[in-house]
Amino acid sequence: MAIRDEIGDRFLDNLDRVQRTVGTYELSVAKGKGRRSVAQTDILLAAVVFLHASLEDLLRSLCEWKMPSANPEAFSEVPLVGTRGKTRFDLQDLAGFRGQTMDEIITRSVNEFLEKSSFNYPGDTR
């Protein structure tokens, strides 16, 4: 199965879980009018939180898939893996990557960066 299909299938599965959670809420709500209980609205809160997590997973997965082959400009804020954000490194730092291809190093750097990234606010990467 292609990575694109895996990402899409996981997102659709997650959306289905959100819909089932909302369905659980709808079943728990009496037909009458009036305020819903905290327990009932907590079910909706859980659905919103899961929906947000599903969107973050989708975005992170797409970045993980596409970024390693992106134009060099896409890496302007991605630090080299294992350097804790240092912008300068020397031969000693690079020696730790012996035997690895540039593609492997770029992929590891992108993955490490994405592990610490957030999609909560535009421009928020940490």
Topology, please?
Blueprint: H1 3-28, H2 38-66, H3 91-95, H4 102-115
Helix pairs in contact: 1-2
Give me a quick take on this structure:
The chain is mostly helical and 126 residues long. The chain contains 4 helices and no strands.
Your description of this structure?
It is a single chain. The chain has 126 residues and is mostly helical. The chain has two domains: 1-61; 70-126, no CATH class. It is built from four helices and no strands. Helix 1 (3-28) runs antiparallel to helix 2 (38-66). The mean pLDDT is 89.
Keywords:
mainly alpha; 126 residues; single chain; elongated
Structural class: mainly alpha
Assign an overall shape.
elongated
State the low-pLDDT regions, or none: none
Biggest sheet character: none
> How do the SSEs run, as a string of H and E?
HHHH
Oligomer category: single chain
What is the radius of gyration?
21 Å
How much strand? under 5%
Q: What's the total count of β strands?
A: 0
Indicate how many domains the architecture comprises: 2
Tell me the span between the first and last alpha carbons.
Answer: 32 Å
Overall mean pLDDT stands at 89
Helix content: 55-70%
Tally of contiguous helical segments:
4
